[in-house]
User: What shape does this take?
Amino acid sequence: MLTDRIALRQRLDKATDHLETPVAVVDLAAFDDNAEHLTARAAGKPIRVATKSVRCRALLERVLARPGWHGVMAYTVPEAIWLVRAGLTDDVLVAYPSADRTALRELASDPALAAAVTLMIDHSAQLDLIDQVSPPAGRPDLRLCLDFDASWRPAGPLHVGVRRSPIHSAVQAGAMARKIADRDGFRLVGLMSYEAHIAGVGDDPPGQALRGRLIRLMQSRAFPELLKRRAAAVRAVREHAELEFVNGGGTGSVAATSADPSVTEVTAGSGLYGPALFDAYRNWQPTPAAFFALSVVRRPAPRIATVLGGGWIASGSAENSRLPVPYLPEGLRFKADEGAGEVQTPLLGTAAAQLRPGDRVWFRHAKAGELCEHVNELQLVDGETAAPAPTYRGEGRAFLG
Assistant: This one.
């Protein structure tokens, strides 16, 4: 493993030595290998790529050209419209409800967009908002997907998982499907349930053996319950709608979710980049494919090397797991009372003693697509050469910025 890291550092340095830092790269060999593994884990079910985990059109095009990958899961309606009009896809599922009146009006005014984009809903008030923006009599039917809550509620008020949809039971799902069927201007075509407490929680957090055991116990109880409840919800919804798809999962649960007979497709995205949070998973760890480099600019002590920048913190709960990981050279760590700084980041460890101003340190972001919010382009590394590809930010598209 050490030899692999040394060779990777040499290859990344050589491919990007003509560029100034900060520089972000995606190793295409690792990216393609991860895509292939995800396809195998999906066991024949199509994979919808999560755009928020990639945020680079060139790489979205690359993975969609592979067998087994079809359609995208976008995170905003403006992004969905952009991707369709750019010719990337004609099948977009927007993963979250929207209150963007301008984008909803644009979608409703274009039959081609309305046929390509599926909106996420979980409450009739969201339908009211759409009707206010564009009355049903003057628009094509809008495609809808019902967000079904996958969280685990073992007893009373205990809630395990993220807070997403209020629709938790099959009865609630059927009732919402009936409301949609009774309204003009809408067509329910899909159901999604994202098991974040399974797909998005690593079951083997480094240095936390007890927590890992508790997570595995929770997941072993929560997933069977979800399988039964999701199947019942699909049956209830199909009494009122002809579903085209039932979507579930994420990178961390592709294999398990694909085995669910009620699911027709799975979603993945983060596994293409292999960010640091996935080091905490036992069932599959993607090959690290996305990195960013910062330059050493000072040596405040013999075993400290300071790089310029570094505060590329991931979203989520404020804890150390959201920090980027110093990866190359091996043997670096943050200074506990400084962490990853906005302008400078001191790094400690045996490897720091060998670094000099001008040397590069390669980091892995904790999450996937958020890396792209810091740079205008990714360098796509093929062997020892690199070619630039604009990120969403580089194309002037900051959809949640």
The chain has a mean pLDDT of 93. Residues 209-238 form the longest helix (30 residues). Residues 99 and 129 are 7 Å apart (CA to CA).
